[in-house]
Write a structure and sequence with these properties.
77% helix, mainly alpha, globular, 2 strands, 448 residues
């Protein structure tokens, strides 16, 4: 089965593919914003502790389940009621992809707009531009469909020739773009004020909310709870050090987030703009920031705008590839369908779902569930319920249900090396992670 399913063949490919799953649009805007609003470096320190105690153990739980089973997410949890957790993971990944691909399509439109010189104007211009485009009946749908077809091309090539090869190309390009943008942003007047805002500890801003925000960012940024890591790990060889891989992925994910902050905040402070959270930061505030910051050298501003939105597109692509692979593996193995046909089924369903989500934002406002547009409902369902429930149940499964010897074998590669992190991992999987994720869940609904 392992051979017929395909597998990753290089350690660097494993790290880059898994990191690509974690690195996404949330790294570009959510982490810098949370850091800036929660005490700068003070928040980062708390976040790093949360990564160690919650994020890495939660990642390891999925990696252990996936490699142990060498099967898609539903089979990975065995038979009986626990298999429902696998089904939940597949559903979660597909649900997120349903609205995430719409936003990814927006990033591609903005790359095109930057290239043809339409990223010029004040805040009102960018507000109107975003509003008219996102609510248009077919333009965002076309960009979304194009994005999904690009994703399909990668998935269709398989694990080694598709996902692994693409990750080895896309992730280095993403880092290169980030570094170029950081240099451009730091060269601006008053840029150091932005760096200070991001990295100087301000413990007076630390409250109980800071800890919950750090917990939430930790959990959501590492791609846990939607079976993507579980699926990827099913393609790992038995010689892969799961603990080391998890630490590498967490380090890369955090580095991307911090570098993104070094792009956004110096540029924003150079023109006296306080960044907002959410899509408005990416599609309204930042285009205006780049327009103002590089007004003295329009050619540089032109290039920066193109590179920034290209960076967003690449970050979205590496994430959606993993979201696509999870249901593709499920369809292929559970329904005994050729992989390429399974990929087409998932792609078509994703385009249909993405189309409905896009139309719900303006063209067909009646596409609603419980008073929310379909786009917002998918976002709410996945972020507030499915991800947290799936992540918590996965940790409980590894900590309390999975045979202890299997867990130990996976952590130590069947006793071939001593894993000093193992005792802490067991403690985290059994107690720290379930309790931490439960606290996130309750906090989201204002219960604590």
């Amino acid at each position: 089965m392992e051979k017929s399913r395909g597998r990753f063949i290089s350690k660097i490919g494993i790290v880059l593919a898994t990191a690509g799953s974690a690195v996404g649009l949330g790294n570009i805007w959510r982490f810098p914003y949370e850091t800036g609003q929660n005490g700068g470096a003070a928040f980062i320190l708390i976040y790093l502790v949360c990564i160690l105690l919650l994020g890495i153990p939660a990642m390891l739980c999925e990696l252990i389940i996936g490699r142990n089973a060498k099967a898609n997410a539903t089979r990975a949890y065995g038979k009986g009621p626990w298999r429902l957790v696998g089904y939940m993971g597949v559903l979660t990944g597909f649900t997120i992809m349903g609205f995430y691909c719409v936003v990814a399509g927006w990033t591609m439109q903005y790359v095109y707009a930057a290239i043809v010189g339409r990223m010029h104007g004040d805040t009102a211009y960018f507000q109107q531009y975003f509003s008219e485009f996102s609510s248009h009946p077919y333009r965002p749908v076309l960009w979304m469909a194009l994005f999904m077809l690009l994703t399909h091309l990668v998935i269709n090539k398989g694990v080694q020739k598709g996902i692994e090869r693409a990750s080895k190309i896309l992730m280095p390009i993403l880092f290169l773009l980030l570094l170029v943008l950081v240099v451009c942003s730091l060269s601006l007047p008053n840029a150091m004020k932005g760096v200070e805002f991001l990295l100087k500890p301000d413990f007076s801003e630390v409250t109980g909310k800071t800890f919950f925000d750090a917990l939430g960012q930790t959990f959501f940024t590492l791609s846990t709870g939607m079976a993507a890591l579980c699926t990827y790990a099913s393609y790992f060889g038995n010689d892969v050090n799961l603990t080391k891989s998890a630490f590498h992925v967490a380090a890369i994910d955090t580095l991307v987030a911090i570098l993104s902050g070094l792009v956004i905040f110096p540029a924003a402070f150079s023109v006296g703009v306080s960044p907002d959270a959410g899509p408005s930061l990416i599609f309204i505030t930042l285009p205006n920031v780049f327009e103002q910051a590089f007004s003295a050298v329009p050619a540089v501003g032109y290039v920066v705008s193109i590179l920034f939105f290209l960076l967003l597109s690449l970050a979205a692509l590496t994430s959606v590839i993993s979201m696509h692979e999870t249901p593709t593996a499920f369809v292929a193995e559970e329904f005994h369908i050729e992989r390429k046909k399974a990929a087409w089924i998932v792609t078509i369903l994703a385009i249909i779902t993405g189309t409905l989500c896009s139309l719900s934002l303006g063209a067909v406002p009646s596409l609603q569930i419980i008073g929310k547009s379909l786009f917002d409902f998918f976002d709410f369902l996945s972020a507030n319920i499915l991800l947290t429930m799936g992540g918590m149940l996965t940790c409980i499964y590894v900590g309390w249900v999975m045979p202890r010897q299997q867990v130990h074998d996976q952590m130590t590669n069947w006793g071939t090396y001593k894993n000093g992190f193992y005792p802490l991992f067991v403690l985290a999987a059994r107690y720290i992670c379930p309790l931490g994720i439960l606290m996130i869940f309750l906090h989201q609904f204002g219960l604590i």
